[in-house]
Design goal:
By secondary structure, this protein is an alpha+beta fold. 35% of the residues lie in helices and 27% in strands. The chain has helices at residues 11-26, 30-51, 84-87, 106-113, and strands spanning 2-6, 59-67, 70-77, 116-122, 125-133. Strands 1-2-3-5-4 form a 5-stranded antiparallel beta sheet, covered by helices on one side. Helix 1 packs antiparallel against helix 2 and helix 2 runs antiparallel to helix 4 (106-113). The longest helix has 22 residues, at 30-51. It is globular, with a radius of gyration of 15 Å.
Length: 141
């Protein structure tokens, strides 16, 4: 599945529906489906908010595939170059929840829930790739 979404937070609902349909078709277990949805929401929201300025004319592309007992996701945008894996500030995990500032956990969560995460700049686009193994091997898509 490959689809471009307007760079607005209103797109998150459709992304969740599309990810759920993809997970059902690919035989993803519930933990992998949860992880994929959470990570797509975090990455898309950050791309839309910070990279694209919530401009509905800007598009963010999401590609989903499954093979070899794994699911793969790529999120790409044409915003200025930004590697969230090295340039996003690290969250302060030592502070208690009440003292912590809102946000800042997106990259941390993506790294926690995905088996592999990588960034590249390709063809004038930021591309964040994510991979997660499926419980029991999963299906092909």
């Amino acid at each position: 599945m490959r689809k471009a979404y307007p760079a607005t937070l209103e797109s998150l609902e459709q992304i969740a529906l599309d990810a759920d349909a993809f997970c059902a078709e690919s035989g993803a277990d519930s933990a992998a489906a949860f992880a994929l949805n959470l990570c797509l929401e975090e990455v898309f929201a950050n791309c839309a908010s910070y990279g694209c300025g919530l401009d509905p004319k800007q598009k963010i592309e999401i590609s989903l595939s499954a093979r070899g007992g794994e699911i793969f996701a790529e999120v790409s945008d044409s915003a200025r170059a930004f590697d969230p894996l090295t340039q996003a500030p690290s969250p302060d995990l030592s502070a208690d929840a009440d003292s912590r500032s809102v946000g800042g956990l997106g990259v941390f969560l993506v790294k926690k829930y995905m088996d592999e995460v990588s960034y590249r700049r390709e063809g004038g686009k930021n591309v964040l790739s994510m991979r997660r193994k499926l419980a029991g091997g999963g299906g092909e898509k």
